[in-house]
Specification:
about 150 residues, mainly beta, 6-stranded antiparallel sheet, 3-stranded antiparallel sheet, globular
């Protein structure tokens, strides 16, 4: 059951549907359905309070996880323990649809804030960084190049 307050969120060409919120799971997790265009992906970052799992549904993404480079496609998963520096980039043959599972939940609020504010990278990095900090996220470097 989708949380209708968090469906169809748009930010930087990506559509996010929160299919399980922190509130719906009693705080234990959140699940975000992400539809991402070719070449998209966040700057290098660390989630200080949450483990993150990507479940690839369609398309492929290149990942950097703690210095390790890997590619994941449909049916594969990538687990990123909390405190691990990482990023990803949808391959040029994208788009990609993947589920992002965060434990504990709460980070889905970052996607809602970004969609509401329509912040731009790199122009609005000060505001993005402040909001990220409220969600225990720290940006540590640039996005992954193609």
């Amino acid at each position: 059951m989708k949380d209708t307050d968090f469906t169809g969120l748009q930010w930087l060409g990506v559509t996010y549907d929160i299919i399980l919120s922190k509130e719906a799971s009693g705080g234990t997790m959140s699940i975000v359905d992400s539809n991402s265009p070719a070449g998209s992906g966040p700057p290098m970052h660390i989630h200080h309070d949450a483990d993150e799992t990507f479940v690839m549904l369609t398309g492929s993404c290149d990942f950097v996880r703690g210095g390790e480079r890997l590619r994941a496609g449909p049916g594969e998963t990538v687990f990123i323990p909390r405190g691990t520096e990482h990023t990803f980039r949808v391959t040029d043959d994208g788009p990609s649809r993947h589920l992002v599972i965060l434990t504990p939940g709460g980070f889905e609020g970052f996607f809602k804030a970004m969609s509401d504010g329509q912040y731009a990278i790199p122009d609005d990095m000060e505001d993005i960084g402040r909001i990220a900090g409220e969600h225990h996220l720290e940006f540590t470097g640039p996005p992954l190049e193609g």
